[in-house]
Amino acid sequence: MTGRTLRLSRLRRIGPEGRGGKVRARGAQPKVVALGGGMGLSASLTALRRITGDLTAVVTVADDGGSSGRLRDELGVLPPGDLRKALAALCGDDDWGQTWARVIQHRFQSKGELHEHAVGNLLIVALWEQLGDHVQALDLVGRLLGAHGRVLPMSAVPLELQALVKGHDPERPDDIDTVRGQATVALTPGEVQSVHVVPHDPPAVPEAVAAVRDADWVVLGPGSWFSSVIPHLLVPELLDALIETKARRVLSLNLAPQPGETEGFSPQRHLEVLGRHAPKLALDVVLADEAAVPDRDLLTDAAQRFGAAVELAPVARTDGSPRHDPELLAAAYDRIFRMHGRIGPWR
Q: What are the residues whose beta carbons fall under 8 Å from the beta carbon of 109, sequence distance 6 or more?
């Protein structure tokens, strides 16, 4: 038995039994929808494409920094950056997939206006302008790349993320200020109390809502908690779909707190703030890296408030960095889908 096999065999569940308890048929592929943004969603997609051929990414559209922010400001378009990263993560491991993944992630280096623009961002925006349809354009890019799944924006309009932050000004540690913009929220000093989006009632992309309602599994996280994960709960139609779907829901926790945004957060604190933003949301499974959970009982108690079991598994890279290992994360998801799944549309 190899060292990797030993690590995979250590996956174990703690907490209450999952609802249903049915195991999906051998060789069947569940319909999976993954929600998030940035590198957290990319990690999840890279793992999930290894275990299912029916995969949809629903991506946040509140980014206002870097190349995405510049294109958003200049052209009034959805920020394409997180959509591009999701498409790159869905590229295959063959030469075609990896070549295209590198191409769309490539950033120009110059002293002019193209500096730091990503090729994929320009391609996506060009197709939006040519076709006049967000979803059709992203589907076309996906076909070009040979992507193992579909990428959809969560909303049809660009959103501004705003946060209420306690102690944003170190000289006024007890005051609560409004911090605007995803890039700013992600690095804010102080303690984030809550987040909301502007406009306050943004339209969801119908295909994203339909995907969540039709899924067998919905995966939320990992990723920047306030700026990539929770924003999906702030789109009313999407939140309703998450609450009402018959799919199983798994929440994938981060490997470590994020400096600024979730500085000092325990695993259970992540669940607490999620519950404050979506008190009606139920979960089936909470996945966490076993080395990142100092108190399993506290996490189990927090998960039980959502009706969820806790799965602890080694999902981090072995180099010590706070990054997920795609193969280990894939093994964890696959086990969850098999052990907690009910007989679904793939039966």
A: 115, 116
Nearest 5°: the CA angle 208, 201, 71 is 70
How many CB atoms sit inside 10 A of residue 43's CB? 24
Neighbours of 191 (CB within 10 A): 17
What is residue 226's DSSP assignment?
I
Contact present, 32 and 215 (Cβ < 8 Å): yes
Element (H, E) at 285: strand 285-289
Q: Cα separations (Å) of 109 from 28, 61, 118?
A: 45, 25, 10
How many residues does this entry show for the chain? Answer: 347
**Three-state SS for 203?**
coil
Q: Are 247 and 218 in contact (CB under 8 A)?
A: yes
- Each residue's pLDDT expressed in tens, for the chain with a length of 347 residues: 444 443 434 443 333 333 333 334 445 689 999 999 989 999 999 999 999 999 999 999 999 888 998 999 999 999 999 999 999 999 999 999 999 999 999 999 988 888 888 999 999 999 999 999 999 999 999 999 999 999 999 999 999 999 999 988 888 988 899 999 988 888 888 889 999 999 999 999 999 999 999 999 999 999 999 999 999 999 999 999 999 999 999 999 999 988 878 888 999 999 999 999 999 999 999 999 999 999 999 999 999 999 999 999 999 998 888 899 999 999 999 999 999 865 444 43
Q: Which tokens is 291 given? A: 């080395």
Strands in 139-180 per DSSP E = 150-153, 160-166, 176-180
Query: Among all chains, which residue has been given the structure tokens 């591009």?
Result: 84
- In this prediction the pTM is 0.88
